[in-house]
Amino acid sequence: MADGPRGAKRGIPPKEDFNAWYPAIVEIADLVDKRYPIKGMDVWLPYGWSAMGNIDSLVRSEMSMSDHDEYNFPLLVPHDLLEKENRLVQRLKLAREKGVDPSELRMDEEVEGFEKEVYWVKNAGDTKLDVPMFLRPTSETPMYTMFSLWIRSHADLPLKTFQIVNTFRYETKQTRSFIRVREIHFFEAHTAHADVEGADAQINEDSGIVRRLLHDLCLPAIICKRPVWDTFPGAWYTNAVDAIMPNGRTLQIASYHHYRDQWAKAFDITYEGDDGSQKHCHQTTFGMSERLLGAVVGVHGDDAGLIMPPSIAPIQVIVMPVATHLDDAVLPEAREMLRRLKASGIRARMDDRDMRPGAKHYDWEIKGVPLRIEVGPRDLAAGTFVCSMRTGGKQIFPIPELEMYAKKSLDDLAAELRARSAELMESKMCVMDSLPDSPKELEDGLVYEVAFDGNDADAQRLEKATNLTLLGDRLEPYEDERPCIVTGKLTKRRQHLARMY
Q1: Dihedral through CA 323, CA 326, CA 327, CA 333, nearest 10?
Q2: C-alpha distances in angstroms, 389 versus 134, 267, 316, 369, 393?
Q3: What are the helix (H) ranges across 40-122?
Q4: CA distance 6 to 28
Q5: Cα-flanking dihedrals φ and ψ of residue 385, to 5°?
Q6: How many CB atoms within 10 Å of residue 228?
Q7: Which residues contact 454 (CB under 8 A, 6 or more apart)?
């Protein structure tokens, strides 16, 4: 048999105690080993890395369909480029706070940027570097330095790039596998366009990509336009995608930003227009990380282990020959079934270990393999096999139609996961019509929907009254006007309050 899981591991905490269940299951299911001696830097194990690789494959497919090209930029970034980014970001942040155009601010009004959030490299061997370097937290700085060299005319646009790399951030809060780490498996797409309309179209395309990925991962989510004070300072606006976890907290799993021409002006990214004049590009970014896998683990798993959506399951079907000692024809037939499944594009594996079936079942339940196919002497005599779904239930199908029924069962399981996760999301949503007198009046573990159309001070009052964070404007507003929960002003703006990871 091919390499199987290690021995069955007991002691999974009940999922009801999510804060204990989640960190336990990522190790029990062999996704990562957290014993590496640097906090927040886990070792990916083959099963976890394969699942993450399948998510990357979905992303790469979307990038190919939307004409993005994959690049790989250097890990190290010189300090002077960070200063350039700091000047831009802090100027935009101050301009936003003061309600003025960024061009009106003086350089001496800028403040400290991101130096405390990055890992520094200041020596090469025994030699102190003239210009310190840092490990990339994201890649605007190195990418846009090169964009300014690559883009010369309108014929070079749009430029649509992406990379899947590791990024590094000095996370000082409590780390949690996939959710809050210091070395991050990260996807980032960066685009440059001739005008704001091109960037607008890219944001719409990103929105479609996000929704298709959520469908593949069987995850419903809230997509919001972040409030101004929670928008990345270098962006004109930010759309964020928040999954709702079983404990009612939201987990931001993706974001995409419209930059207008702000970064292009800072990095001198210009092109020659049809009229011969130099114009600044308009840009967007789109980012996701291993948090996608964290959401899959948290939303779909149960007390018995993981439940992997078929789209990313490292093993979609496990084939188990039963009672081979009673009929010499069982094992050859199981091997032929495995061959047929693989030939049809299904990720399948054989488990022919000499151990009790119940122990095998437990192993594959922990890992969340979507389908378990068993064939024994009685099945062989009847020309059938038994198909058990990780979400529950089993059926008997004819062996000649193995491929068709395996694929249908995988589709059925994915549909069941979508229904379950939608039910979870609905169970965690609650409408708030009026401000509470105290945050203690609110039920813990819920996401509250509100009609809100106030200013920053109104938002601060709302957050203080609830002890929750305002996620921003839902991309799907109310159909009819409702009174704002703070001001009473009629509005269609639909927003959410939650406790965030």
Answers
A1: 0
A2: 47, 53, 11, 9, 6
A3: 46-65, 79-98
A4: 10
A5: -140, 160
A6: 14
A7: 461, 462, 484, 486, 487, 489
Residue 3's nearest CA partner among 309, 296, 306, 314 is 314
**Contact assessment for residue 209 and residue 203, using Cβ atoms and an 8 Å cutoff:** no
Contacts of 116 (CB under 8 A, 6+ apart): 170
Q: Provide the 3-class DSSP secondary structure of residue 43.
A: strand
Instruction: Give the C-alpha separation, 68 to 475, whole Å.
Output: 25
Q: With a threshold of 0.85, does the pTM exceed it?
A: yes
Separation in Å, CA 207 to CA 60, 190, 344, 445:
16, 15, 32, 28
SS3 255: strand
Q: What is the mean pLDDT of each run of 10 residues along the chain (501 residues)?
A: 44 92 96 95 98 98 98 94 73 62 46 72 95 92 96 96 96 89 97 97 98 97 92 88 96 96 93 92 97 98 97 98 93 97 98 92 96 97 98 97 98 98 96 94 95 93 96 95 96 97 93
The distance from CA 274 to its chain's CA centroid, rounded to whole angstroms, is 40
Residue 388: which of 401, 406, 403 has the closest Cα? 406
Contacts of 456 (CB under 8 A, 6+ apart): 228, 229
**Which tokens belong to 68?**
């993005």
Element (H, E) at 122: strand 120-124
Distance CA(387)–CA(348), nearest Å, equals 13
| Pair of tokens at residue 206 | 């990103």
- Phi, psi dihedrals of residue 249, rounded to the nearest 5°: -80, 150
Nearest to 171 by CA among 12, 29, 291: 291
Question: Helix or strand or coil: residue 365?
Answer: helix
